[in-house]
Amino acid sequence: MVVGEIASSVDLLVIGGGPGGYAAALHGARLGRQVTLVERNSLGGVCLNVGCIPSKALIEVADAVAFPGRVAGWGVSATTSLDMAAVREHLTGIVADLTGGVERLLDRAGVTVLHGEARFSRPNRVAVEHGATVEHLEFRHAVVATGSRPIGLPDLPLDGGRVVGSADLLFADVLPDELVLVGGGYVGVELGCAFAKLGSRVTIVEAEDRVLPGFDDRIGRSVTRGLRRLGVGLCCGHKALGIEDDGLRVTGPGGEAVLPADTVAVVVGRRPNSDTVGIAVTGASVDGHGLVMVDPQRRATDTVFAIGDLTAGPALAHKATAEAEVAVDAACDRPNAFDPTCVPMVVFGDPQVMTVGLSEAEVRATGLDAYAHRFPFSASGRAHTLGDTEGFVTVVADGLGTVLGLQAVGSHVAELAGEAALAVETAATVEDVAGTIHAHPTLGEAIAEAAQGLAGRPLHSD
To answer: Strand order in 247-252's β-sheet?
Structure first.
């Protein structure tokens, strides 16, 4: 059945129910707007359903499987076994709990949720298709948070069996014997570490000359060492040519080779879903990469706002959530702007990576004087108690002593991102950080120790 062209009026329309979209809907309802949210799949978006949450849960499972090797030198003897079907059920349960929580929050806030695929038909109207039904909605304001989708490779089409995306790999019932990950960014590194610990023989193929090519060289080298300790094969400087009966054919400086693979996962990046929603119909400008041009209030047109992966910057859930509040405030004539000093980035590999603000090289590239001190976890009491002293924390400051960046590599360093971001965002000085009493023994002490070193009075490092 097709509903006629007569449109229903909505006040604030939110398209997309991921972290940015549901945050926008909840904030709009809080400010007294009548909110309608349209989601084509499950609430929570990619992050909650097939991305951030299940991947981190799988990483915890992998760490549990690897636990006996970690504690063997502590006088503890342990064994583990793995049931991938039960793991899948565990991941599914976590996702269901969290997406159910989002649904309850929206319901209590009075947000109307429509399940279907929205597409702009006019600058102030969308058609929402669900099954054989099409419903037309005219809006006063719209926040578009349709996210992104995996980039495909023409020579490696996904078949859901031997060649898969990250979502299919996460929820696999059978552990791959030979897994090749095409893409050495943070997703490839995280999945490579996890599946190596679970028992797969893993190889990462990366077109650049090392994994995590967008990160500081020292971080890249540390992560490379960690991958090699886990037995992960690294095929950097190579490109995938196609799948064959005996594996994945790649080419690089030394010519072509075939990597054994019963499963190939393509994780080369993501592209914005600006085309699927037809946002250009509203008059919004979209660049050649599919990114929507927005002002500091996330405004794409007078009445349409775009947030999250649709806009420039890292495609991260916490960026989308922050942008959601800005966009809704602007739609409600409240002063706000998206102008963060930093957006934290973490990689849940082994070792973990945390980076906030600028590196020493990036500060110098701006023309400012740069000063940095690196505190090694080999000098951290807490790292010793955890049994993992690999890695470091670096604090970077300018000539006036203002903290401009922090980077860390090591066990559990993702948990340091909040303090690091607060220091950079509030323009804390090296003395501010060095003079703040940190609890002992904690990993957070490493931030204070690095700041003390930068202030010229190192305690546990040279």
So the answer is: 239-244, 247-252, 255-259
The amino acid present at 317, given as its one-letter code, is A
Arithmetic mean of pLDDT over the chain: 96
Q: What separation in angstroms does the CA of 452 have from each of 335, 439, 441?
A: 38, 15, 17
- Residue 174 has what pLDDT? 95
Q: Which of 130, 136, 141, 440 is catalytic?
A: 440
Contact 322, 19 (CB under 8 A): no
Burial class (CB in 10 A: 0-12, 13-18, 19+), 79: exposed
- DSSP secondary structure code for residue 18 in this structure: S
User: If phi over 0 gives left and psi between -120 and 50 gives alpha, with beta otherwise, what is residue 406?
Assistant: beta
Cβ contacts of 104 within 8 Å, gap of 6 or more: none
Contact indicator for 52, 94 with CB cutoff of 8 Å: no
* Terminal-residue alpha carbon distance, the chain: 74
Q: How many CB atoms lie within 10 A of CB 13?
A: 29
Under DSSP, is residue 221 helix (H, G, I), strand (E, B) or coil?
A: helix
In tens, the pLDDT along 103-147 reads 999 999 999 999 999 999 999 999 999 989 999 999 999 999 999
Residue 293 has pLDDT above 50, yes or no: yes
Sheet holding 178-182, edge to edge: 163-164, 263-266, 178-182, 201-206, 233-236
* DSSP code, position 156: S
Collect all residues with Cβ–Cβ distance below 8 Å to 129 and sequence separation of at least 6: 116, 117, 118, 119
Structure tokens at 223: 């992560």
Judge whether 277 and 146 are in contact, CB under 8 Å. yes
Which pair of tokens denotes residue 231? 């037995």
Q: Are 272 and 292 in contact (CB under 8 A)?
A: yes
Q: Any catalytic annotation for residue 440? A: yes
- Helix or strand holding residue 351 (H, E): none
Token couple for 137? 């909605």
Of the candidates 354, 351, 267, 262, the residue with the CA atom closest to the CA atom of residue 63: 351
In the numeric block, the tokens 């951030």 are attached to: 52
